[in-house]
Amino acid sequence: MTAPAPRPLIGLPSDVKTDGDMPFHAVGEKYLTAVTDGAHGLPVAIPSLGSRIDIDALLERLDGLLLTGSPSNVEPHRYDGPESAPGTAHDAARDETTLPLIERALAVGIPCLFVCRGLQELNVVMGGTLHQRIEELPDYLNHQADKSLPLDERYGPAHEVALTDGGALIAMNDGVPKLMVNSLHSQGIDRIGTGLSIEAVAPDGFIEAVSVDGHPTFGLGVQWHPEWKVTESGFGMRLFESFGKACESWAAARGRPRRSSAGNQAA
Length: 267
Hints:
The protein is α/β, with parallel strands linked by helices. It is built from 7 helices and 13 strands. The chain has helices spanning 29-38, 55-61, 92-108, 117-125, 151-154, 168-172, 234-253, and strands spanning 9-13, 15-19, 22-26, 42-46, 64-67, 112-115, 130-131, 159-163, 178-181, 188-189, 196-201, 207-212, 219-222. The strands form 3 sheets. A 9-stranded mixed beta sheet has the order 4-1-5-6-13-12-11-8-9, sandwiched between helices. A two-stranded antiparallel ribbon has the order 2-3. Strands 7-10 form a two-stranded antiparallel ribbon. A hairpin with a 5-residue loop joins strand 11 (196-201) and strand 12. Helix 3 (92-108) packs across helix 4.
C-alpha cells in the first residue's frame, strides 16, 4: 500500500503577548484549525523574532503562508501614517517579522493567504496606507464587532461584499457577485498598494479583498474572517481548500509528493 503523502507545511506568524513579565509567541486556534481542516495542511507557528529569522531558510521549508488577523494594528510609521490614538494595540515584533517575510514570499512565489491584519500587512508591503479607525470616518460603516455579543454572533454575517467581475473570488463563488461576510476590524486599507487589484468591496466602498497581480501560485487577501468555523462556511471552506491545493502543488513542484483526493500519494 502506498503511504499517504505528507500534508503541505503552512507557516503562520505569531503574535507576541505578555503574561506577567514573560513574552509568549501565540497563534489563534481558529487559524490552526482552518489550516488543518480547510487547507488540509500542517500548521507551523513562526516565531516573531524579526531579523533573527532566516527568511530564505524558512521559506525553503514551507509550502505556504497564512498571514493571520490579530488584535494589534500595524505601527503607523511603517506606512508614514499619523500617530496612533492612545491605547492602540501594536506588535512591533510581528511587524518586524511579517513585513520582510511577505516581501520575500511574494518574490519567491510561494502560496500566500492574507486575513485581516495579514491583508493590512500586505498592503503596507506593497506601498499602500491604512485607515486606523474606520468607524470615525464619515461615509463609512462601523466595521467593528460588538464585543458585548456572544462569540458566534460577533463572527456572524455582518454585511455583503460585491465581488469584482473577472476576479479570483467571484470565480471561487461560482460567479455569484455578492457574498455575506463577517466584520471585526477597525484598521483597514486606505490607499491600495501598487501591484494589488481589488477583489471585493463593502456597501460603503471600503476595500474588503485584494489579489496580488501576477502571483504565480496563490496570492489573495481578505479583510473578513473566513477561518471562523471553516468547515461550516461554504465560501470559507472553498477559499481554504483552494489555498491548500496551491500549497500541495507548490510542494509537488519542489519534489515533495502531492496528496490524492483520497489522502494517498498521487500517481
